[in-house]
Amino acid sequence: MLYIAAFPGGWFKLGYTATDFWRRACQFWTNTHPPALCGKLGPENVVLQALFVGGREEEQSLFSEFPPQVGEFFHEREVGVQTLLEACRLKLDALPLPPKPEWGEADSAEKLPCCGGVEYSCFTCGAKFSRGIKLKQHLDDVHRRIRAKCSGCGVEVIQRNLKRHQQSCKK
Question: I need a surface site. Which of 16, 36, 112, 129 has the fewest CB within 10 A?
């Protein structure tokens, strides 16, 4: 489903989620975002504007029509939220808005360093990453050189990319 969510300071976000919106909202800390939203990406600052039936293809179509200013974020003065809502209503079926759940005190969400999160550093080469999973991928791909051999053409590719490679493999 596609969602449009408002944030403080006139910012809003268009995005896709395959899961419950409020579960996804707890992960906004890891999104590329405008500096004005540092420390303000928690679900307590989110106002869900609309939900629509749609997938990544519809999301990309809307992004090509309305390019976001930063990541998936728009500012009201550049693209009005009403303009984006109207475009979605013309193309997509609306879904009912789920109630906003109560949030506890504990916040264990992974965050970008600018929002109080940890910066992860590679001990081997010093490369820095804002997410732990990106450091793990870097270690596997660059230093451990974990590769898999394509059964179709015999080329060695990064293990996590094998399935994608095989879908486009020429042999």
Answer: 36
The pLDDT tens digits for 64-119 are 999 999 989 999 988 888 999 999 999 999 999 998 887 654 455 667 667 777 77
Return the structure tokens found at 32: 């590329």
Contacts of 169 by beta carbon, 8 Å cutoff, 6+ apart: 150, 152, 153
> What pLDDT does 130 receive?
76
| Predicted model pTM | 0.67
Domain residue limits at 153: 120-168
Q: How far is CA 98 from each of CA 6, 88, 102, 114, rounded to the nearest angstrom? A: 15, 18, 12, 30
Widest Cα–Cα separation across the chain: 54
Q: Are residues 18 and 68 in the same domain?
A: yes
Asked whether residue 108 is assigned to any structural domain, the reply reads: no
Residue 24 belongs to what H/E stretch?
A: helix 21-25
